[in-house]
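Ticket opened by: R.M.
Priority: normal
Category: complex prediction / small molecule

The reporter submitted a protein together with zinc ion and asked that the result be attached to this ticket for the collaborator who will pick it up next week. Submitted input follows.
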Amino acid sequence: MTDAATSERVLLEIEAAAEEMIDFAAELIRIPTVNPPGTEYRRCAEAIGDRLATLGFEVEYVEADGRPEHSEAYPRVNVVGSLRGSGSGPCVHLNGHFDVVPPGDGWTVDPFGGELRDGRLYGRGSADMKSGLVAALYAAAAFARAGIEFPGRIEISGTVDEESGGFAGVAHLAEVGRIHRDRTDYVIIPEPFGTLGISLGHRGVYWFKVVARGQIGHGSMPFLGRSAIDDLMAVLARIDKLRPELERLVTSMPVVPALARTGSINVNSILGGQSDADPSLGGPLQTPCVADYAEAVFDRRFIVEESLDDVRGQIGSILTELEREDPERRYELLDLMIVEPTMTPPDSPLVRALARSIRSIVGEEAELVASPGTYDQKHIARIAGVEHCVAYGPGELEQAHQPDESCAVEDIVTSAKVMAAAALELTTG
Ligand SMILES: [Zn+2]
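Result attached by the on-call engineer:
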């Protein structure tokens, strides 16, 4: 059992490292690991690896060999640090992604400045999720610094590409067995759910494309062609009618915001006919033609109570029905990305340990939530087969991907303490 004095020592180490922690988070924000395309990954992985080595961790670099996106120009480099306890015991793995989305417009501070102002750290990745990664790193480091005895193992990984699906990142670590149920017992991903929020999992994704094919003709005599755009519009109209049906089925998962507790569908893009913006045409040119091609990309999110077969089948039957109504309609359905919903049971020892630590450190009750969008938990659950995985980390979800993204410095320190206290309980039993 963890005695109070031991956990007190660990928490004091985190308190003492507060400034170092914030400096290091700012240092990582200053490395623009923008995805796409995945810039500066090696430099960032090495900055994390060097810090881990200084803090007494064994460090490994795991490159995503064999993945098409792991190129010479944009290498996919992950880093893992481990701290071995005195014997065999449970392994707690803390994982954070260090890629960030592009900054976009509307910033009033340098998105890669790592500026500290009024108790908040600013910059792309400050909330999502370099602060969380650094909090996890110092939570783990406090074990070594406090020189405490524990039988298990504590690991920390910094991974790539979460923002584009995590295939060269966490999925790769799981595929090569670096994170695996045989060696990994508990995983905490410090995504920004705040100092009280424990995310049990996320909804599923069915991302697909519908292609409509028509026949080209003169724009002045549209009746001699077949407009793929008109045929695609029929699909859009039918999918719009699906929305009330999706909103009627409410999940038992505690998804936040509550409006995301149902299935949803978004039209991500539409493309049809000849674009006057097509640079290969050498400028704004147009010819009067009936569009023989149109496509739309859809993002269907589904809840744990729905099955992927049903979700896909729903779209398939809409297309079949439309083709039956008018035999000249021709559609293709292409799967772009599939993620099954995942949820760790609320009574998992990992959830209980975190909730207890939140109660004792923050002084409030934990909030069990689930995420509307997916994150790397899917790979931990599906590929690594680890049953106990949650997200818990500093920052507000609302800050993610926004201009002037920021994270409260105090929350970084608090969540590091919560993660350390929970990890201590889990590794020492
Ligand atoms: Zn994230």
